[in-house]
Amino acid sequence: MRLGPGLLVTAAFIGPGTITTASVAGANFGFALIWTLLFSVIATILLQSMAARLGVTTGQDLATALRTTIKTPVFKLLAAFLVISAIGIGSAAYEAGNLSGASLGLQEILPSFNPLIWTPLIAILSVVLLYTGKHKVIEGALIVLVVLMSLVFISTLIMAAPPLTLVLKGFIPSLPDNSITTVLALIGTTIVPYNLFLHSGVLAQKHDKNKDIEKVIKETNVDTSISITLGGIITLAILSTASVAFYGTDAGKISAANMAVQLEPLLGGMAHYFFAIGLCAAGLTSAITAPLAGAYAVCGMLGWSTKMSNTRFKGVAIIILAFGAVVASLGLDPVAVIIFAQAANGLLLPIVTCYLVWLVNQKSIMGEYTNSVFVNVVVFPVLLLIFSLSIYKLFSLIF
């Protein structure tokens, strides 16, 4: 089988934010929070597999399914507001960080060039790629970047050579003092609501009634499992490298921006460039997938076409990208927009995940491809965690 749509999800959730969160986790708590990554990967595979199955079986993306199955006008309006706010506006807000991350990586690799050129150049390249409106072109570019990112971070991990016994010990759940915020941040950077819209949307466009649906679902499940596991391994590599380099030292504030430089004394000059290339690839992949996810969500909720080649779809994606480019280029502070998007995401994630689980259990929608009893039992604690995560996020934003 050919890997594809699942790697788009990996491309989306491994961005500068994930690099920063994993780096901070390793620097502050060593290997102790590796178990969080394992849990996050399993939860993400479960949810993304359901979203993918919805697209494969019905030919509808999640946003379209929400719009068409919610009958009460008030609830439909509320759902549209939440989705457009959390996914559309949120993607635009986070896009600034994605473009900045890719730009920082290029500055580290090519320091002799004017750093001001990178963000506009990356934005223009992303616009050109999105404007093609072609699945295969966009998917192919992202697969290359994900493979590059994987090779870079795994190579950096090998150079860091963390003790295997400590890595394995990290899979045993524990909560060091003051680690709860970092635990929730690690989970929150992996279980991302806009990926549910992205994954279902990409597969809905490939829907074909004449294909063997059961075979396609099996292939999609394998693709999803391998791709998201790869994303987990990349995050593990970043966390472990940061742990070896910084845990127990007075390293100062760790971030995606300075990780590359700070690794040089431990791993040598090549590690500096390796990490910078990885940061650039991570920023690029998220810079392309965030506008796509936002476009699927906004267009699906407004009843517009969700085909990549559609003018409205491309317009929404490019507006999201342009907003991020302006904020990143001018050095504006998108904090207010990000806080609003995070609050909307805090409300949206439990609603959307519950609705997704409800959708894939409806025979009238899914036919014979509804959830098994086993999947429903396994997904229940994931839903409890999502509700807890959302309550914590909203509480922290308010207080």
CATH H level: which superfamily?
Amino acid/polyamine transporter I
Q: Work out the number of β strands.
A: 0
| Helical stretch tally | 17
In CATH, the architecture is: Up-down Bundle
Structural class: mainly alpha
User: So what's the CATH class?
Assistant: Mainly Alpha
Shape: globular
What is the residue-mean pLDDT, rounded to a whole number? 85
Cα(first) to Cα(last) distance is 49 Å
As for the CATH topology, it is Amino acid/polyamine transporter I
- Reading the helices and strands in chain order gives HHHHHHHHHHHHHHHHH
Count of the domains: 1
Percentage of residues assigned to helices = over 70%
The main sheet comes to: none
| Gyration radius, rounded | 20 Å
Give the uncertain stretches in residue-range form: none
Oligomer: single chain
Strand content: under 5%
Explain this structure to me?
By secondary structure, this protein is mainly alpha-helical. It has one domain (5-398): Amino acid/polyamine transporter I (Up-down Bundle). The chain contains 17 helices and no strands. It has helices at 5-13, 16-29, 34-58, 62-69, 73-109, 118-132, 135-160, 164-169, 180-190, 193-205, 213-246, 256-267, 269-302, 311-330, 335-359, 363-366, 373-398. Helix 2 (16-29) crosses helix 11, helix 5 runs parallel beside helix 12 (256-267) and helix 5 (73-109) packs across helix 15. The termini are far apart. The mean pLDDT is 85. It is found in: Membrane.
